[in-house]
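Protocol step 4 of 5: obtain the predicted structure for the target chain.
Materials: sequence only (see below). No template structures provided, no constraints applied. The aim of this step is simply to have a reference model before the mutagenesis design in step 5. Sequence pasted as it appears in the construct record:
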Amino acid sequence: MAGKVKRSLLATFMNVEPGSSTPTWELMGPGITDQTIAYNPQTEEETYIHEDSGVTELLSYRPTIPTPQTAIAGDPVFDFVDELRQKRAVMGDSKTEIVMVYKYESGSSGAYPAEKQAVGVQIDDFGGEGGGSLTINYTLNFEGDPVNGSFDPSTKSFTPGA
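Step 4 output (structure tokens):
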């Protein structure tokens, strides 16, 4: 059936225990009202000497996900990111993984097509206006290529594709 796809059918799960032998996948959602992947294409532009119009060659992508989140104490994603902020975690200490689950695509046995992605968590700012809710803004910086597979949201398990 063709038609519009609701935003809720693209689910992102974060591993909130990256040092553990078994990932702990938690849904990114509570406190997050907007989350958009910026693909940040890297291009090279040239104009050949025999032409008046140039060409743009797509070289690569450097995806990021800027994420504004209202602080909700007890939410595993907020607690994990806030701990990174408090530690001012950098380099290897700021790394984790996410799984983007495409629930709008056909799945089987409760699992949907998904991609697992290594990310670095960059804390952008923390605070807010007087009388309002506390917010934390952070960016997930993709690292390397994704691993395609499937993810079962009920069991929170990722299976790499063949």
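Step 4 remarks: The first helix runs from residue 76 to 87. The two ends are 28 Å apart (CA to CA).
Proceed to step 5.
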